[in-house]
Structure formats: structure tokens, C-alpha cells
Amino acid sequence: MAECMAARLTAQEEQIELLTREFSLLRDGLNGGPEVASILASSPELESLRSENEKLKFRLVHLRRGLQEELALEGQGKRGTNKGQEKTGKQQPKNRNYDNNKAATHETKPVVDKEKPENIKKAAQGGVGGRELKPWPGYISERMQLYEELKKESDALLTRRAADSQPITVELPDGCRVEGQAWVTTPYQLACGISQGLADNAVISRVNGDLWDLDRPLEKSCSLEILRFDNDDAQAVYWHSSAHILGEAMERFYGGCLCYGPPIENGFYYDMFLEGPQGVSSTEFEYLEALCKSVVKEKQPFERLEVSKETLLKMFKYNKFKCRILNEKVTTPTTTVYRCGPLIDLCRGPHVRHTGKIKALKIYKNSSTYWEGRSDMETLQRIYGISFPDSKMLKEWERFQEEARNRDHRKIGKEQELFFFHDLSPGSCFFLPRGAYLYNTLTDFIREEYCRRGFQEVASPNIYNSKLWETSGHWQHYSDNMFSFPVEQDVFALKPMNCPGHCLMFSHRPRSWRELPLRLADFGVLHRNELSGTLTGLTRVRRFQQDDAHIFCTMEQVQLKSEVYIHLSQKLSFSEFLTFNPKNSLLRSVRITTLF
Description:
Layout: H1 2-28, H2 34-41, H3 44-85, H4 120-125, H5 139-163, E1 167-171, E2 177-181, H6 187-194, H7 196-201, E3 204-207, E4 210-212, E5 222-227, H8 232-253, E6 257-258, E7 263-264, E8 267-273, H9 285-298, E9 303-308, H10 309-315, H11 320-328, E10 334-340, E11 343-346, E12 360-370, E13 379-388, H12 391-406, H13 409-415, E14 419-420, E15 430-431, H14 433-452, E16 456-458, E17 463-465, H15 466-472, H16 474-478, E18 484-487, E19 490-494, H17 499-507, E20 518-522, E21 525-527, E22 543-545, E23 548-552, H18 558-569
Helix pairs in contact: 1-3, 2-6, 8-9
Pfam families: TGS, tRNA-synt_2b, tRNA_SAD
EC number: 6.1.1.3
Catalytic activity: tRNA(Thr) + L-threonine + ATP = L-threonyl-tRNA(Thr) + AMP + diphosphate + H(+)
């Protein structure tokens, strides 16, 4: 079997070598001038060659994998024979070098033995130096097999559409128009025609206002914009693609079930469900980074595939979380998946062209969370990362993070004995004498500002009957985040905000229009049942006091009072924006036509 597999491997390598030579000739033809470059860039033959080359490379990986499995089995057989011939009482050393590409049953234990910290890169490639990567989870091969069948159907459909393609016109941001072919021309090809530098630095494109994969053929005449990393939308795409790279590494390392992996304001994260008490440790980051680097080095293309909901339920039957998303979130008959290497993930996209676009990646934090933030659901492991198209940008980010750590209020508060937190009252700050002095100084400053502007300070209860929260709407939408408890035949709760209490103060007796505007200020203690994993120093707590104030006024007084409030806010340095009450709130929605 091994000899047969080796012969197939040799034939496959010859095919790839021939395709590589032909591709080099076509690439050299691009030096023939703009006309030749344009023809070759948009040539269906070239696109077909590129696609076939990628498929052959992937088939080559599988052939090598099969050959390694055969050799491993033969080696095990020989070792078993030799062991039987040895004397009893002698123990053979265990073989710790496993192939990191074998497919096997679903593993839920950590799949890297971390006996020694050196040779991390080698650990990413296979068992080296006392560490080993266990086989791929069994669902990988089944998922890939189904994907390949669907991809063939999709490629055949695209080929038929390309054969009947019509000329299209693409409008660029500067007003210029270029010609193309529907279902053939891609944004990347057009970017190459404009500037090779633009094409090399492109992250994603925007077609008719929607983000679009660079290698996805255009379907009709449209407007086109090529986005680089300095664009906010491009950064989100870049970090989303980086999350998929991390997801591939996590599947390889842990063998669990991936959940959500979105971009965030600064970077990305991926959630994974692991069976049993298994968790994630920061000591494993270097192994994950090594796996991510190997994925980047392979330049795995991101492939988009539109699939029916029923088929996707079959594809992700091993992952109950993906099935929940399909059943609860997907309302259309079809949706999309994206593939890079062995990872196939439920995703709307779009993504960068290939994993090689991610030049610098770092994993820097992990935490535990709940499925969709619900404490009654499964606990997930979350890993955070950041990536950039330049290693210098990553170093600058690391320098900034180091400065932020040195200025962290939690670090300063402990060093200067201002405050501390304790496990016996999580999320509730203990202000020490120095911290209490600063706290009271800030309170006095706010109290003086309130007095200058006609606010009257009040004190309201901490505990209310749940009927009040039902009236305000908090109980229907926020009860899980409130501390509640039974009292006789009713349910009471600690107040998470002062608004309903101030409304009771306003309505406890008839009011005259002469009393308006009525300004109430409160420094009452508030409690919110934040999840333990979200508590972060003084920025996310369960017990706090809020400089809370409300103005009760007529419609004619809204503009003037808003100006007074904004003037007060501008004395402090922070970002500000105006919001309005949501529908079904205690107060009616107010429309403000102008503030100034």
C-alpha cells in the first residue's frame, strides 16, 4: 500500500511541477505590456489554472498524509514483532512522535504535551522534543469530504455562468470606468490593472457599498473601491480572517467545538467549548502562535461557498453550537461558509485573499465566558488575539500595551493603597483612607457643580418591589442582571439605577407647571449582577455610586436644559453622544429637532 501511495505521490508532484512551469510562463507574459497583462489577468484559463493548482496542492497534502499513515502502521507492526522477541521484564520506550495531520476520533483533552518550552516551531509541525500533537478530530475529514462535493458543484455552476458572461462596466472612486466580464472579472484583477502596489496592499473591496471578497467574481456592473488596512471596515475584515486562523489552530490544538469568532474593536477572539474540566492556560499561547504561523506560511486561500441550511446542519452535526446558530439565527434558505485549509466555518464573510496576508499575529489573553452571555448555558473558553500587516505595527501595539499596563488603575490603586477587591465580595470596591479621600473630593466637586446649576440633592431607597421594575421595563429585559430576593409574598430587587425612584419622587403628589424644571440629583448606591468574568477593576463592578441626575421639564424647556447639561459635560474630557429612550420605556420618546 505504501509503494502504491508513493507512486501516486510522485505522479502528483510531476503534475504540480508542470502546472508551475506553465504558470511561470503565463506570469512572464505579464511583462508584455498593459494589453497582455489585462488579457492574462482576466483570462478564464488563468483562473482555471490557479484553481486547479490549489486543488492539486491540497490533494498532495492528503496523499502525503496517507503515505505517512501507512509508514507509521508498518513501523508499529515491526516494533510489535521486535517486542515479542525480546525478553520479558524489559520495557520499550514509547514513541512520542505522532503525525500531526492524521485524522482520528474527536479529542477533548489538551493535545500538546508541554514538558519542555523549546522548539515551539517544531512542535507545530509534529511531535518533537517530548511534546506531541495528537491526531486531528474525526469530524475534520467528514466535514472536508462534504465540502469538496459541494465545491465541485459550485465550481461547475460558476463555469457555466462564466461561459455565458456579459460585458460589465465598473466605476472606480475617481470616476474612471473599466470594462470587465460578469462572473469572470474579480476586484483583485482590476486592482492589478490599476497598480500592483494597490493589489498587494488590498485587504478587501467594496462593491456597490457592500464588502466583497477580492477573488469573488463580479456579477454585474457596479462601483468598486479597494480598501487597505487603514480603513476601519478593512481592519474588521483583517481581524475576522485572523480569527479563522486562530480557530484552525484551536481545532488542531484542543479538538473542541468552535463557537463564535468575531472581530472586535482592537483585534479578535474565538470561543471554543471543551468537554469536562479542561480549560485554556496562558502557557499554551506560544504553541497556538506557532500553529498560527504555520497556517500563515501555507497561504491557505479563503474560499466562499453558499450552501443550503439543511446541508449545513449535516456538515456541522458534530457541533451543537453551530446547529443552534443555524436553527435560531439563520432565517434564509441558504447561507455561507468559508474555508481556509482544513477549517470550514459558518461565516458571512468576507475575508482576505489568503492566510499569508496576516503578517504579524499575537495571542495575548484568555478568559471563560458563557454561551451568548447566559449564565445558565455552557461555559466556553475564549482566546483573544491581535494581528497586523506589518511586524512594526505589532511592536508598536505591544509598546502601547506595556504603557497601559504601567498606568493600569488597578496596579496604581494597589501600589498607592487607594482601594482593593476581595473574593468574599466580588465586584465591590474597598476604598482605603487615601482612596476614600479622593472619592469624597470628587463627590464634593460634582455636588458644587450641581448646586450652581439648580439641582437639588435627594436620597432614594436601595430596594424596590419588582412591580416598579415591571412598570419601567427593567424586569422584562434586565432581571437577570439584578439582585432579587423574596420578601413575604413579593419579590424585591436592589436598584441598578435611580431613574424609576426619581419618577416616584416626581409623581408622589400633583405638580404645578411653576415647579418645572425640577432638577433632582442622587449619589445613591447601585447594584448590578454583572457576570464574574466581566468584572474589571473599577470599570466593571457590581456595587457603585453614580452621579445621577434627572430634569423634569416641559417640551418647551428641553432645548435650554439640554444646553445646560452639555455645558456641564464639556468641563470634563471625554467623548459624548446623545441617545433617546427606547420604545416601551417608562417615559415617552422625545423628539428634539435642534439643540443649539
